[in-house]
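[audit] Reproducing an earlier prediction to check determinism. Same input, same settings, fresh worker. If the tokens differ from the archived copy the diff job will pick it up downstream; this log only records the rerun itself.
[audit] input (682 residues):
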Amino acid sequence: MLPFGVEQLAEAQERVVENAGCAGADGVTVEMFARRSAKVLPELLDRVARGAYRPFPLLEIQVEKKPGSDKIRRLLVPAVRDRVLQTAVARHLSHSFEEEFLECSFGYRPGRSVDRAIARIRKCHELGYRYVVDADVQSYFDNVEHKRLLALLGERPLGEAVHGLLRQWVKAQVWNGSKVTPLRAGVPQGSPISPLLANFYLEDFDRELEKSGRKLVRYADDFLVLAQTPDEAHQALLETETLLAAAHLKVNEEKTHIVDFDHGFRFLGALFLGEAIWVPWKFEKRAKGRIRFMARPMPAALRTPYELAPPKSSMELALERADLPRPEPVAAKGRSEGVAFLYLTEQGSILRKAGDRLLVEREDEVLLDLPYHKLEHVLLLGNVQVTTQAMGELLEKGVTMSLFSRQGTYRGALSPPRGKNIDLRIAQFERWRDHGAAVEIAKAIVAAKIANGVLTLERYRRQADPDDDFADRQKALAASAEGTAAAAEITALDGMEGAAAKEYFALLMRFNKSEFEWKGRQKHPPPDPLNALLSLGYSFLMNELAALLEGMGLDPFLGFLHQVDYGRPSLALDVMEPFRHPVVDRLTLTLVNRKMMEAQDFRAGPGGAGMYLEPKAFRRFLNEWERWMLAKPAKGTCFRECLRTEAEKLCAALRDGAGFAPWRWTEDAEPEGGCNTSSVTT
């Protein structure tokens, strides 16, 4: 079924009437069609739904490119019926395609005029771009390769009805007044769907050129690439030729050359000379070329198959679909494949959807291009925007989007609909209401946290060989883990956990060899670099667990050790406790002891409150965080897989009414590889 109805077809017909135009190969004029539209439009939808629709051949018209010129432009005009349907489909697709097209493209797009293209050129000139590759694609509309175009369209989730129509319109037939011939290549000038397809075909060209740092201004097949030096302009021309060749196109050598603003050049009818821009068509009426040839309408006997085409068989439909080969994906420059975690830190950047990929753009430059089919989590830090299309696609694909301040303070998350496992959430609530069962889970969590802290200290102790006092205090800390078994209330466990944490940090910071002084664990906001790194790591850990738990169907706000409070993801904090010391604390000491984070990497917050990482240091932290989370021991799994396993284990314990045994860290060999997930930071 088509994703629109008679009402949308009627709106499309109004647009066709406004544009006027001649009759198509069937001889039906716009006025004739309008008089019968009340009957014809529902029949047209029904014919498409039954697979009985077949477009008329395109009517060939030849007009002068310029008044008095010997050069001819070939127009191929659909029948009015087909123009209405193409207009409706184009308007439907425009909602999604327009969101994906880049800012550098101006032709045939709503709200993007020649004036805006000229304004972009002016802006580039003001920024120091003095040299220009003035280029033209050779016979672009006639040379678009059908096989590649259909393959690109086939990758889009447009629905089989729309795909079927696009296949017929791309692989069209042409009526020249005497015979019908197939259209072997190109998108016909004169069809309402062609401008959209023409921009779509060059989408990869736009993206790759912009990613390389070039300033592109494209209006259909005419475009400029602006550069700051002659060498950059020559390199841009070579890159342009390479990218067009990848699309099975080539530049028009007669119309392509390198120019500069000082000597002047023309583009889109405007003259650029130094600082001045002269647009003569603003004041002069441009004459149109005469029609040199126009095919007569098809005889009635030839029109019959297109008017009364029978429904297509399943075999015919299968053969049509088989004509859509999809190219093997190639990892292009600047692309990242198979990313699970995406961190966006570039201030002022925009995350947008482009087909089955996500683009990160800033000031018309593509910073990142990656597929989202393996994406699990997107983290936005600071002033990063997301288009509604990208947001909707992430939600539809089950990808959580978490928002942090620029300094890494967690603000909240946009999550897909919670898991459908209502029985699991009921089991969670019942366990929480059962005071004795809730206390047992809380005791297991505190005991595991203390035990993992003791093992963390033991690892450092063997490397540094501290005094006997350290060993005695470490043994006392280990004994406190066993003492949790006697606790009968959550408040008692809170006291034990707090005392153990204070003693743990007092011992841990003996191994702090950095320039930073430790004055005790403090937060909200963290007053020093060590506390800032700890808080940042805990925030990422908690956020990742909250997303995992919610995705599996649990309520991350209903915990057992951490009491319920407004806005607090208590269950995520519960599950996080055993991971704090082996994961975050060890990473923090590693970064400062190896001088990967130094005093110049930090700055005070607004009004002197808190301590935060500088932007470059923040990116460095994110890269190290991901490396740390994905490092895989010789025995066991990486920390990220451990988080996932822990969430699954909790679900099983709640579902089955069994006891929960939280994660215990084991001392295996040093990490030697990574897990099967990856991340990108930009």
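[audit] rerun output stored. Observation attached for the diff report: The first strand starts at residue 58 and ends at 64.
[audit] end
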